[in-house]
Amino acid sequence: MKSKVAVSIYVFNFLEVGNKIEELVQAGVDWIHVDIMDGNFVNNYALCQKFCQDIKAKYPNILIDAHLMCIEPQRYIESFANAKTDNFNFHYEAVTNKNEANILQIIQDIKANKMKAVIAINPETNPQVLKPFLDQVDGVMCMSIKPGFNGQQLNDMVYDNIIWLAEYKKVNNLNFFIQVDGGVRENTYLKLKQSGAEVLVVGAFVNVPNNELKTQINKIEN
Ligand code: DX5
Ligand code: ZN
Fold this sequence. Notes:
By secondary structure, this protein is of the alpha/beta class. It has a single domain (4-221), classed as Alpha-Beta Barrel (TIM Barrel). It is 33% helix and 21% strand. The chain has helices spanning 17-26, 49-58, 77-82, 100-112, 157-171, 189-195, 210-221, and strands spanning 4-8, 31-38, 45-46, 63-69, 87-91, 116-121, 139-143, 177-181, 199-202. It has an 8-stranded parallel β-barrel, surrounded by 5 helices. The chain binds D-xylitol-5-phosphate (DX5) and zinc ion. InterPro entries: Aldolase_TIM, Ribul_P_3_epim-like, RibuloseP-bd_barrel.
């Protein structure tokens, strides 16, 4: 089964990240996952709108998947749209007012700003809370780790979350893509794909010498 690779550039040495992106593009990667952390929703900081904009300026055909680990993500919709972000990927847990109408409004605003709306959930969040939004979002991202830090081991709960979403999508004939982020490794990627993950965010998995990059990408995409 084919899946798509989205590379999390946060895992690379920042002094080398420009070269790394070039290597990734040469190897055929066309989704770049940019981790945004506000030091509040998670106990860490990372990246920003300017980063998305700078990548897009150099590589207009690359899809920028901004993963906002930020409280009240709706505050940033416009600025990420201005930075030419493609996917606005926000956490359900980070929205304080979880009223259905409020979350639907956020999704509408993202789309009105010409971005794809992707809603993310932590491994412990029951995906069924997303039911009211699944015919509206473009994608759902299942975290398989606690957000905020790369290099963690995958939490097994993610498999059931993916399986439930894949089944719900099929039964209801919906179009959202299913994405997974964190802990994609040699011993996890196959089961994630088999469970129904269509986009796999990879960090450590592709933090390899340039000549091994294609092999790693092929494992997921072919
Ligand atoms: C963590 C980030 C992930 C992370 C993935 O908060 O959302 O994108 O960088 O790294 P790996 O694939 O190494 O677990
Ligand atoms: Zn991420």
